[in-house]
């Protein structure tokens, strides 16, 4: 993830992410499976969309939206169920293999796919429905209310690192809500390892360890964060680490 972002294949990165949650996942075998899913797919936008959602039967998981497996690409392929971001990865991956460039769009609240050639936005959660900028704004308003501020910059494409960060955010939030400490630690640890991770994202790993009862590891993380933080913020991290150390006595 630290290299040139143009060299990062999002399907491979998503499988590597999933392998931290699903023991025994073979990334090469899963990539070969995606190759097979794209065999015979035509290059046109309609053909790619039909292949993914009609022929292969991928669809949005409306009944179990917050299921952790919706964020793990291997499970999405096995079950043909996912959320907007993972279904978009399937769409982009099949499209790339068919010779069509598609990019992820991190619109707040609902991930979309941009078909570069046509300029159309696709809602993978709604079977690849094609929408224009106005349609994207309407979808945003439906999700956030008419008072929520909208800006066209919300439709700017994001690269693989941004996609992986958003997937890890989803997984961390789901795990925290379900008191799944192991998954929360995995997700926040992986996010903290991203080359552009913030001080606060790294500190979130300490909170995950603290919630699990591992005060020693939590304090170690905070001390490491303090070493890299600006002086005014480092003092707070060191104080929090000392408080956690006191709980070990």
- Identify the strand order in the major beta sheet: 6-5-4-3-7
Q: What is the average per-residue confidence, as pLDDT, rounded to a whole number?
A: 96
Tell me about the largest β-sheet. 5 strands, antiparallel
- Tally of distinct domains: 2
Written overview of the protein:
Helix content is about 55%, strand content about 10%. With about 250 residues, the chain is of the alpha+beta class. The chain has 2 domains: about 150 residues; about 80 residues, Serine Threonine Protein Phosphatase 5, Tetratricopeptide repeat (Alpha Horseshoe), CATH 1.25.40. The strands form 2 sheets. It has a 5-stranded antiparallel beta sheet with strand order 6-5-4-3-7. The chain has a two-stranded parallel ribbon with strand order 1-2. The two termini are about 40 Å apart. Pfam families: Transglut_core2.
Which properties best describe this structure?
about 250 residues; alpha+beta; Serine Threonine Protein Phosphatase 5, Tetratricopeptide repeat; 2 domains; two-stranded parallel sheet; 11 helices; 7 strands; SirB1_N
